[in-house]
Amino acid sequence: MVTTLDKVDVVTVGVGWTGGIIAAECAKEGLKVVGLERGRERSTQDFSMVHDEYRYAIRYELMQDLSKETVTFRNNRKQRALPMRQMGSFLLGEGLGGSGTHWNGQNWRFLPYDFQIKSMTEEKYGKNKLSADYTLQDWGITYDELEPYFDRFEKTAGISGEATNPFWGQRSAEYPTPPMKKTPILQRFETASKNLGYSPFMLPSANLSETYKNPDGKTINACQYCGFCERFGCEYGAKSSPEITVVPTALETGNFEIKFNANAVEILKEGDKVTGVKYVDTVTFEEFIQPAEVVVLTSYMMNNAKLLMVSKIGEQYDPETGRGTLGKNYAYQILPGASGFFDEQMNVFMGAGALGMTVDDFNGDNFDHNDLDFIHGASLSITQTGLRPILTNPIPPDTPSWGADFKKASIHNYTRTLSVGGQGASMPHKENYMSLDGTYKDIYGVPLLQLTYNFTDQDRALHAYLTEKAAGIMQEMGAKTVVGGNPISDYDIVPYQTTHNTGGTMMGSSRDDSVVNNYLQHWDAENLFVVGAGNFAHNGGYNPTGTVGALAYRCAEGIIKYSKDGGTLV
Amino acid sequence: MAKKEKNFSRRDFLKTSGIATGALIGGGLIGGLIGSNVSGNSGAGTASPAPGTANQGQMSVRGLQFFKNDVEFQVLSQAAERIFPEDDLGPGAIGLGVPYFIDQQLAGAYGENSKEYMQGPFFEGESTQGYQSRLKRNEMFRQGLILMQTEAQRRFNKDFVELDGGQMDEILTAFQEDELEMKGVSSLFFFRLFRMAVLEGAYADPIYGGNQNMDGWRMKGFPGHQASYINQIESEEFAEIEPKSIGNMNH
């Protein structure tokens, strides 16, 4: 028994940053919007007891309940894919705000090089810099075209930063708020990287340096540097999140309604248009259809891809033939870095999610790759996010991992260890992709998404090179012992690495090599939009959210345009 | 090895006392009565809290919620103490109440795998694919602790709790080296789970029953729940701050 509801102008699947931005922009234009959110409502008052490492950072209070739905994984096509039974490598979110609630707030614009990576790489290094197995492509949009949308997102979120990095693309405006406090730990990094001839700058932060009112009239408070950002929500309303910005902006128009506990299971399609979304009430398991003029997939990139696959919209990528685009170019990130052990104690337990300094001297194509066997690179940063005692037990090499020596060393070094870490760009490879699993299902009976992923030679070379650079900075910072990260071999889904998963619903300039056009409009259904980090044709050397926010504003503009004129927007 | 002797005497005392390890008497650990170093030199230059401040809201009654017999709980306690032993910095796992923390966790969502994907079919898989067992964590723990006891008998003809520290370490190392057969889980996987649970109990907020008196935090120099560091974060000085639990919040 399926209940069909009244038709609305726009329905979004998921209410996080992308769903919130689209709801706010469309509702302000007078469009009636419904947001389907499978999780619960939450707001700042839900975070009054959030300084609890065990509950939030270890037991994943804010994350997806994997007993209901997970993904399956294998390193390559020869292996049997098996479910990710417990959370590890990346942390899928759940609930209002999505990952935008528990992000650290490190907010970047991808480099001009990223958007034209294939043409720029070929122009400078020739066609054979990387083998044809690496499925590089341009994004169908340039940095300059996307700049106004970057600016919009930064102003909505009130990003705190300084526009002093020589490697960035042109900016139309300064950051809305000044950078965060340059703490003694950050100053060590600044001095060392300047000594080495690099150009350090304060990391752009969504934990705000001062109280800020955004153009929609929403206030974001000043960060208190309490040290509980990633995996946590902010009890001060000082970390820009959807539930304190775009969601209330949308609700105040009177044109936006959120349906909670609504888990989308299918996008309904007739001919070359979609008609609405079928969802299950997660409390009663009743089924509903929400008809809409426009459907927007705004969930995490994995669920965006999964919904298209189960709804049979677009062509599934097949690595055997190279045909199809859906699920193609799944990319992740690699984490080169180095730790340093010092003699003096430092206030490592203080901090904020995006409190840091960065050098971009080895990111993108900011350095010459002629004599290197890889392309791109990583931003290298020191961050002071607030180290907590359960997960922070640094011990010098050759120290046992338990017992008397472990206890002494881990306690001694907890306040005496710093790390310089990189976010290594991840190049797409023909064997890294997403598809539907043939065996395992979620509790609604829908197949799980299947990841086939492994690190590549490009990844390993980049990791080794950047780890050496990170170790050089740490050495210059005066650490008495410097330990570089171990070389990477095969991707392992168990230890936490990063929640920067990208690809699968690529944007591009042609239906032959992408899922959506540069308004994030689906090539096969003109009233279907898909937006998120899934649109990335590869993964860059930064956190993805700033670029995702820009794409969401671009998408909102496309939807508004489409609502007036119809048709394909490009 | 004076320390080992201390462990012996402590264990012997506890074995014959009929009081569960780490039991509280009037807010102080039994361990405190037998030469442990709970309130003395607890590192990080902190003073013991005045009565009625940090102890507010702590339980004065401790019982078991998951384990049904004291034998398994005693094995758990002694093994946890080997992972995180008492030393001159301060208490070990027993003194911090870690065995009680683990018992409570095993009785709840953690032990029951409430948020894990537990649907079949189950296959072994590659190590890069992670945990692929149909066992719940609390089943792994029971099996692992019983195996520790069996190994103690097989190797030394003694109960696990009667072994000296070196012998206990030998058995724990056999788990860590993945040398022991367990059903539905590798001994290495169980060892990692166990080690992590001990650290969680040592350093989680005291509201969960471990990190007794916040001594885990005191040893480490972590101030726990503090509202703000905005006025301290630019200082070059290392800040020694009396820790606070979220259990002491005034809502």
Strand content of chain A: 15-25%
- Roughly how much helix do the residues of chain B carry, as a percent range? 25-40%
Low-pLDDT stretches of chain A are none
What about the largest sheet of chain A? 8 strands, mixed
Helix vs. strand class of chain B: mainly alpha
- SSE ordering of chain B: HEEHHHHHH
Number of strands of chain A: 20
* Tally of helical runs of chain B: 7
How big is the Rg of chain A? 23 Å
Fraction of residues of chain A in helices? 10-25%
Q: Shape of chain A, please? A: globular
Radius of gyration of chain B: 19 Å
Oligomer: heterodimer
How far is the N terminus from the C terminus of chain B?
49 Å
Separation, N- and C-terminal Cα atoms of chain A = 40 Å
Shape of chain B: globular
Tell how many strands the DSSP assignment of chain B holds. 2
**What is the residue-mean pLDDT of chain B, rounded to a whole number?**
82
Largest sheet of chain B: 2 strands, antiparallel
What's the mean pLDDT score of chain A?
Answer: 98
- The low-pLDDT segments of chain B are 1-59
Organism (chain B): Planococcus shixiaomingii
Pfam families (chain B): Gluconate_2-dh3
GO molecular function (chain B): oxidoreductase activity
EC number (chain B): 1.-.-.-
Write up what this structure looks like.
The complex is a heterodimer of chains A (570) and B (251). Chain A is of the alpha/beta class. In chain A, 22% of the residues lie in helices and 19% in strands. In chain A, strands 1, 2, 3, 9, 10, 11, 12 and 20 form an eight-stranded mixed beta sheet that branches. In chain A, strands 6-14-15-16-13-19 form a six-stranded antiparallel beta sheet. The longest helix of chain A has 21 residues. Chain A is globular. Chain A starts with a strand and ends in a 5-residue tail after the last helix. In chain A, 61% of the residues are buried. By secondary structure, chain B is mostly helical. Chain B has one domain. Chain B has seven helices and two strands. Chain B has a two-stranded antiparallel ribbon. In chain B, helix 4 crosses helix 6 and helix 5 packs across helix 6. The longest helix of chain B is centred in the middle third of the chain and has 20 residues. The radius of gyration of chain B is 19 Å and the shape is globular. The termini of chain B are far apart. The N terminus of chain B is likely disordered. Chains A and B meet through helix 2, strand 5, helix 9 and strand 17 of A and helix 5, helix 6 and helix 7 of B.
